[in-house]
Amino acid sequence: MSLAQQRDALALRVDRRLFYGWVMLAVAGLGMFASGPGQSHMFSVFILPITQDLDISRTAVSSAYALATLAAAFGLPYMGRLVDRYGVRRVLLGIATLFGASACAFGMVTNLVLLALGFGALRFLGQGSLMLSCANLVAQWFSRKRGFALSLMALGFSASVALHPPFAQWLIDQVGWRTAWLWLGVITWLLLLPTVLLLVQNKPEDLGLQPDGARPTPAGAGGGGDASSGGSAEVGLTSRQALATSAFWIIAASLSTFSMLVTGLFFHQVSIFESLGLSPQVAARVFPVSALSMVVAMPLIGRLLDRLPTRPLFAAAMLTLAAAMLALLFVRDLPSALLYSVVFGISNAAVQTHMTFLWPRFFGRRHLGSIQGTAQTIGVVGASIGPLPLGFAFDQFGSYRGALMLLALLPVLCAIAILFMREPRLADDLRRQPA
């Protein structure tokens, strides 16, 4: 019996006792956790040793990070098309192999150019491709319960926020920042390669199953399912049709704003706290507080998405981001830093849950990979900009305060646009139009 046949037989055997989508949800959550070496909260711990070792300024490292992230973003639509064409399992296997190798190689950078190339590879494979593939996997296996399922998947990201920064700081203290990256690469391989090879199934329909472990629900029965019909894999706008809607651009711009601001805050958090008199070790340890807030909030937000109108919830989520940025202005000591971390964690939970929920909710599953790839490109462009205004503000004025106050206005404007957004129409005549 081939590996594929053994994998199918295992999936069907598990499905007799437990809907196999929950296994896919666990795999996707593990993937979100394993994306840590490509995330800003991980790089935050490495900024000080990198700038000291390579003798470069914070503006220089922020610029390298921004340009590399921007360049990496434009490969994501292609990655989304690969997922649509070949299925998430084959794509995930390639991503896992290259992501681990990139992490191992990152510890060998010796100048600003190599640093930018390393940033680009890790951001494209981890923050971009791996998260896109995991979100696609869960969206294929769940429809009526999609909001709750995606919120549970995002707990993997919360675990990364909680565990990766202090673990990375411990590795740096023990073996130095360069060897720390070698270990991070090896751990990535151990987590992802066996899991993808043995467990991942692309869609429930490939095994004769249905999303949610039951027959699709008629149109309009659920508050958060596809706006079409019961989550069928054959329902959905093409990428071109999605791009022709105003809803796509409002959602993409809002999520890009979130990516920009959160990337900037994560990237500079240790530096910001240090400028406020807190040590790097203390700054690294408040990441778990944000993560715990995310863990508590995400399932609640996921349940709300399955039951309540999407647009008001999304607008409220963007407003929590503005509240988090304003809370950072009042950090003076450890208690106020912990309070900020709680607000920041709730904000991350609110928007992260929407980030993977909105695309299948409004545009369907049929061309989900292509649509998500295009949208994630826009989001990563925002993330590439994120570190720059804060790094520039510190180098020019010695403070982050003014930049934080101005940037807090952006999510407020996004919330207003979301409330007035028109939902796209998923209808038979749209499905029949050529791509």
Q: In short, what is this structure?
A:
The chain has 435 residues and is mostly helical. It has helices at 3-15, 20-34, 40-54, 58-73, 76-86, 88-106, 112-141, 146-153, 155-175, 177-199, 239-243, 246-275, 280-285, 287-307, 310-328, 334-363, 368-385, 387-397, 401-407, 409-419, 428-431.
Characterization of the model:
This protein has 435 residues and is mainly alpha-helical. It has a single domain (3-204, 221-424), classed as MFS general substrate transporter like domains (Growth Hormone, Chain: A, Up-down Bundle), CATH 1.20.1250.20. It has 21 helices and no strands. It has helices spanning 3-15, 20-34, 40-54, 58-73, 76-86, 88-106, 112-141, 146-153, 155-175, 177-199, 239-243, 246-275, 280-285, 287-307, 310-328, 334-363, 368-385, 387-397, 401-407, 409-419, 428-431. Helix 3 crosses helix 12.
